[in-house]
Amino acid sequence: MTGIIITVIVVALLALLIFWGIGVQNKLVKADEISKNALKQINVQQMSRYDAIKALVKLTREYAGHENDTLIKVVEARKITSSPNPTVDDINRNEQALSALTTQVTAVAEQYPQLKANETYLKTMEDIKSYEENVRLSRMTFNDTVTRFNNQVRMFPGSLVASMLGFAPKEYLADDVKKADFPDF
User: pLDDT of 80-112, one tens digit each?
Assistant: First the structure.
């Protein structure tokens, strides 16, 4: 009789352990998906900002015809990527390219006061500023989701399940130290 009780207790403990492991795995998958989604949101905002910069280059064509070729070459050289599964490196590269593009277009616009007074130019620059803010907020959201995910992966006892299932801590998006020099619109 005691053998049966011990067997039932062992089976019950194993069942609890399995259910706990499944619960931890589900939390890890959910946190992983949330962080992937947050990274994709940054990519979407970057693509919107890129489109606004391209529109600004087209507008600049009317005012700075001889510099238009230079801007188009810069835009082409600094094409950003929209990947279905962007990585932290993709996002950081895109951010560097977008900052360089914005700086270049702003530098050209500084030479043309009539362009800077153009209503479409002003609206587009506001859009770019808005996209920049959206990217900044999305980056913060991503880093917050990575913190939650990394806590689950690294803290005991969840780390046991995470290591068995191949979950590893994720990389944070680094702050762009050049942003301090980013032009104010």
Answer: 777 778 888 888 888 888 888 888 778 777 777
The answer as to whether 122 is a domain residue is yes
CATH of the domain at 150: 1.20.1440
Q: Determine contact, residues 176/99, Cβ cutoff 8 Å.
A: yes
In a domain, 21, yes or no: no
The verdict on residue 32 lying in a domain is no
What's the pTM? 0.75
Measured N-to-C along each axis, helices 65-77 and 88-110 cross at an angle, to the nearest 10 degrees, of: 170
Neighbours of 151 (CB within 10 A): 13
d(C-alpha 71, C-alpha 74), whole Å: 5
The string of DSSP letters for 109-158 reads HHT-HHHHT-HHHHHHHHHHHHHHHHHHHHHHHHHHHHHHHHHHHHSTTH
| pLDDT for residue 149 | 95
Let me know the angle formed at the C-alpha of 116 by 132 and 124, rounded to the nearest 5 degrees.
Answer: 35
11 is a domain residue: no
* Intra-chain end-to-end CA distance of the chain, in Å: 81
Q: What's the CA gap between 147 and 132, in Å, rounded?
A: 23
pLDDT in tens, 127-165: 888 888 998 899 999 999 999 999 999 999 889 999 999
